[in-house]
């Protein structure tokens, strides 16, 4: 049994790694078992909490909000956080945790949520690092997948915010929409996202990927990431029944 990076020795056999699963349960898992474990783990850690947040997002009636002077809880921001780390997780399994992170994050986005495989239709520039001492990028040279990775995913993780060229709107009809504004020297572009639609599309991407695994696709990549995470290899059954 291959023991990559001695991962197994780092994990206590009695450690919980999912609801109803401990490290010790991995010892005799075959491919069928591993997909079931993978699916239940993703659902418990990401999808069910996201679905709970979805229920908290209610249509906002402006005059009522103004009258009661209530602060709206920012569940949309949390949906984007959940969506970002779920895409990170799924892309690592889909591509075997190999390569440059941004490449397989963006590759996963474009393949499983094709709306991201597009670029700005409006002209303008954006500062990828929110740093005006750096040369701005022309919007025509940036696609939505890179904007999401750098401005949303990395902005949240590294800066605690979505960067200046990104935003989200609960009630926008389009999943992804563009806007422009002008500073003293440049026309800037912004990509806005509907966070509810985003989360639902990431869930659909997850379902599609699991379906592909059931069809025995991308097996070697899945095996590699599974072994990197837990130190266990899997026994492959050519015919899988669920």
Write up what this structure looks like.
The protein has eight helices and seven strands, in the order αββααααββαβββαα. It has a three-stranded mixed β-sheet with strand order 5-7-6. The protein has a two-stranded antiparallel ribbon with strand order 1-2. The protein starts with 6 loop residues before the first helix and ends in a 12-residue tail after the last helix. The protein is mainly alpha-helical and 242 residues long. The mean pLDDT is 88. It has one domain (4-230). Strand 1 and strand 2 (21-22) form a beta hairpin. Helix 4 packs parallel to helix 7 (195-214). It is elongated, with a radius of gyration of 21 Å.
Q: Please identify the oligomeric state.
A: single chain
Q: Which consecutive residue ranges, at least 5 long each, have pLDDT under 50?
A: none
Radius of gyration: 21 Å
Mean pLDDT score: 88
- In DSSP terms (H or I, runs of 4 or more residues), the helix count works out at 8
> Helices and strands, in N-to-C order?
HEEHHHHEEHEEEHH
In total, the number of strands is 7
Strand order of the largest sheet: 5-7-6
Give the overall shape.
elongated
Structural class: mainly alpha
Largest sheet: 3 strands, mixed
What distance separates the N and C termini? 26 Å
As a percent range, the share of helical residues equals: 40-55%
Strand content: 5-15%
Number of spatially distinct domains: 1
């Amino acid at each position: 049994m291959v023991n990559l990076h001695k991962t197994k020795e780092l994990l206590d056999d009695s450690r919980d790694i999912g609801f109803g699963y401990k490290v010790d349960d991995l010892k005799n898992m075959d491919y069928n078992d591993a997909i079931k474990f993978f699916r239940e783990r993703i659902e418990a850690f990401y999808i069910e909490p996201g679905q709970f947040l979805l229920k908290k997002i209610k249509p906002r009636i402006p005059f009522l909000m103004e009258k009661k002077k209530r602060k709206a809880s920012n569940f949309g921001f949390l949906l984007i956080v959940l969506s970002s780390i779920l895409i990170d997780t799924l892309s690592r399994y889909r591509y075997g945790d190999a390569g440059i992170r941004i490449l397989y994050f963006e590759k996963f986005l474009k393949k499983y949520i094709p709306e991201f495989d597009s670029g700005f239709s409006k002209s303008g520039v954006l500062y990828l690092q929110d740093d005006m001492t750096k040369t701005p990028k022309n919007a025509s040279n940036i696609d939505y997948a890179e904007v999401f990775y750098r401005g949303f995913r990395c902005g949240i993780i590294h800066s605690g915010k979505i960067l200046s060229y990104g935003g989200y709107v609960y009630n926008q009809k389009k999943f992804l929409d563009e806007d422009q504004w002008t500073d003293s020297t440049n026309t800037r572009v912004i990509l806005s996202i509907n966070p509810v639609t985003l989360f639902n599309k990431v869930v659909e991407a997850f379902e599609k990927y699991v379906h592909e695994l059931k069809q025995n696709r991308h097996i070697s990549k899945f095996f590699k990431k599974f072994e990197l995470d837990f130190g266990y290899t899997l026994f492959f059954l050519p015919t899988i029944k669920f």
